[in-house]
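Class, carefully examine what follows:
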Amino acid sequence: MSHLQDITQNLFEMGFEFDSMQMIFRHNSGLNVLFIPAAQTVHNEPVSDCIVLHEDIWKNRKAAVINRLLSLTGHTHRIHGRQCTVKRIDLETSRLFLEQYHTGGFVNSYFKYGLFYRDELISVGLFSKCRTFQTSKNLTYKSAELTRYACKTEIRITGGLDKLLNTFCREYEVNHLMTYADKEWTDGKSYFTLGFEKIAETPPLQFLVHKQTGQRIPAGEKPDNPDDWILKSNLGNLKLIRIKNPRP
């Protein structure tokens, strides 16, 4: 079965319909998914009201893609953040969770937090090491970056990310939090409701994708067999910051 057939079958089960002329899957919720085949070299044009799904991401992150689409189309049951507890977790626990549930996979980060519901790990948030900066008025403040956040399949945690952010910021006295949002998956609105503001957009990033495995490497690298790789690009990211005191 080809990846397009596999995607089509899985998305049909979620209620999507496929527009083969435009390579777009449409859902009655208003969510659209634009499929980018492996053979399409560079994609950096703005796409209105569409998630952009690259074939190599489906190949290597299928479970995470399905998890995210289920959430976006409302195939979830809701849990309130106030019903959950926040705990520090170890590297292996966070790695296994994010490899399964985040479309970008795991990235090693200094602080690793989990949100637990009845002793079950249902979401993970990773943060960078804190840095101290000084303003023009000689005031100091602590800054950190939210590097990853993901929830378990078919679970929507109302206030869950906000609870993780506030716990981390309170414990380490952080009042300047930065993150990047993938423009192929979000317009940033979910972050705006948490108090983030957009301060910049990063340009599209070029990378090489292996034609057989779907592995991605930076475009500047020189692989042993260049003919086995194809040049592609994404849409870049939104750069967001949240400056506030955490709530108790």
User: Anything to note?
Assistant: The first strand starts at residue 16 and ends at 19.
